[in-house]
Amino acid sequence: MKNIIVTGGAGFIGSNFVHYVVKHHPEVHVTVLDKLTYAGNRENLAGLPTDRVELIVGDIADAQLVNRLVAKADAVVHYAAESHNDNSLQDPSPFIQTNLVGTFTLLEACRLNGVRFHHVSTDEVYGDLPLREDLPGHGEGPGEKFTDHTPYNPSSPYSASKAGSDLLVRAWVRSFGLQATISNCSNNYGPYQHIEKFIPRQITNILSGERPKLYGDGKNVRDWIHTEDHSAAVWRILTKGQIGETYLIGADGEKDNKTVLELILQLMGKDPKDYDHVNDRPGHDLRYAIDATKLKDELGWQPQFTDFEEGLADTIKWYTENREWWQAEKAAVEAKYAKSGQ
Questions:
Q1: So what's the pLDDT on residue 138?
Q2: For residue 265, how many other CB atoms are within 10 A of its CB?
Q3: How far apart are CA 189 and CA 253, in angstroms?
Q4: Which of 233, 127, 123 has the alpha carbon at shortest distance from 187?
Q5: Helix 198-207 and helix 257-267: axis angle, to 10°?
Q6: How far apart are CA 202 and CA 208, in angstroms?
Q7: Which of 161, 167, 226, 179 is nearest to 76 (CA)?
């Protein structure tokens, strides 16, 4: 694969994937297709070689543009999505347009041009799992983690739109023979993540002299993975994955939100209890947990960033050293949360 398109490549997870490809695969040219909504940022691609990375500002639902770009590509890696649950509860329409119509547009272009397609999705399509007090490694039983056979049960407009896009991919594989794969990943953390999301919001609150905020009692569990491990897994699936298959990406990183917030405070030299409880999100999923056995056994992938505290410390350092990247947006983000008591 000499020429790949990365949709949403100026966003958080997408830009980290672009950095990964540039670093590890010097033979590959990357065309980033990004609408540059609030979640996309040119600065996420700053410093990358211009002869290897080209940014095209455009909409994945623009069929004419997408067809023109895909005709020159060997593969499309589809990260672009409206992805913030809270926003989907306020206005679901952009989620339907981007996540469903946009994915359909890309699928059609890849079908017509015979181009390999990889669809990056989320574990939120499966809904949630019952809470467990013993996290993790205490003898998980059947149904304790998501697998590629777990039934879809999305909880929010965001996760429903992603579930729909996954099903479109599966249908195009079966109906048209599209050369496609799907990955569903657990929660990512690392540099370049928008400050509306949980970990960077808490870090930037502390750096701004504000008290961090915790939804409800903070017992909701997320399965954290460093974005570098996610990038390596996607590349492995793109190049080695079996067509038509779904692979779950996770690093056995289950932590409840309260534990994560208190660790952030501790690492930043604050009292671990120095935060405020705020209104819980409507329909807030209880627990996510990924079983990545298939990815590990079939494709030989293993996570490298397995020390969550170390990875979190590196993430805190990045936001501390890159205030100019997030500071201008901070007041507006917090004002938006304040309207809903969060």
A1: 41
A2: 20
A3: 11
A4: 123
A5: 30
A6: 10
A7: 179
Q: How far apart are CA 259 and CA 41, in angstroms?
A: 30
Q: Tell me whether residue 38 is one of the annotated catalytic residues.
A: no
Q: What is the pLDDT of residues 284-329, one digit of tens each?
A: 889 999 999 999 999 999 999 999 999 999 999 999 999 999 999 9
CB 183 within 8 A of CB 246: yes
Q: What is the pLDDT of residues 180-236, one digit of tens each?
A: 999 999 999 999 999 999 999 999 999 999 999 999 999 999 999 999 999 999 999
Closest CA to 286 of 146, 115, 184: 146
Asked if 110 contacts 70 with a C-beta cutoff of 8 angstroms, the reply is: yes
134 pLDDT tier (thresholds 50, 70, 90): low
Instruction: Assess whether 124 carries a catalytic annotation.
Output: yes
Question: In the block, which residue shows the tokens 């739109």?
Answer: 161
Q: Which of 20, 79, 158, 288 is catalytic?
A: 158
- Put simply, whether the predicted model's pTM sits higher than 0.70 gets the answer yes
CA separation for the pair 336, 332 (Å, rounded): 6
Helix 63-70, helix 103-113: angle, nearest 10: 40
Catalytic residue (choose from 82, 123, 166, 256)? 123
Inter-residue contact 57 to 35 (CB < 8 Å)? yes
- Selecting among 124, 196, 228, 291, the annotated active-site residue is 124
* Whether residue 123 lies in the annotated active site: yes
DSSP states of 13-47 as a string? Answer: HHHHHHHHHHHH-TT-EEEEEE---TT--GGGGTT
